[in-house]
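G., the chain you wanted modeled:
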Amino acid sequence: MKRLVIFVFLLLSRGAIGQISNLDFNGVPARVTPYSGVDGSPYLFPDWGKASVATSNGGVKENVPFRFDIHTNELEVVNEAGNNIILDKNYLEYVVLERPISQIAQSTSPGLLPQLLFKKGFEILPGVSETDLVNVLEEGERYTLVRRFYSDLVTPPKNSYAPTAGKMFVFVENYYLIDPNGDVSSIKPKTNAVLKELDPRDLEKAKQLIKEQKLDLGREDHLVAFFQELNK
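Predicted structure as tokens:
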């Protein structure tokens, strides 16, 4: 976990020299939400949060108010003029989203990461375009572990309590493991499921890591630490 925090700090500091406060955002005015009358939420987090945004010109803007619409994969932010805009992802290098403290405190799942790194360029994943933002948990020479968040808009079947079928958002979270050959495997964040997808040459080392460090690969922090070690 400590290594992950250092990793994110290095990412943030890489472009943080210079015109941080005067960084201009490229984007379009945010649209009025088209989701009226739809149950659930299209956003990764229900409330506005804070993000660090790095652009392709090397600038980094911190503490940017954001909402991430994972149905459309659009990042809505508030610029310095106080306007809500949707960022043009062609100008983005990466973003780091802060997970709400309340979500961490109230979660029944231990080990949630306080910050989530998102990058584009993972169009090899199913349903992902070249500009879509994907949560990168670990990126290395042997293994790259990423996660795709998606809010699927579905129409549930009619029932006796709903005379007309409405629409609702269903939260989807998929993990993918990418090997050096670019082959993609969909995995479950469970110890046995992860072990099945590893290169057989790494199995002995992997099992030893899990035993010695008492890792539970169902935890985000343990899963990240595990692949960091395998990438060494």
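Confidence is low (pLDDT under 50) at residues 4-22.

Shout if anything looks off.
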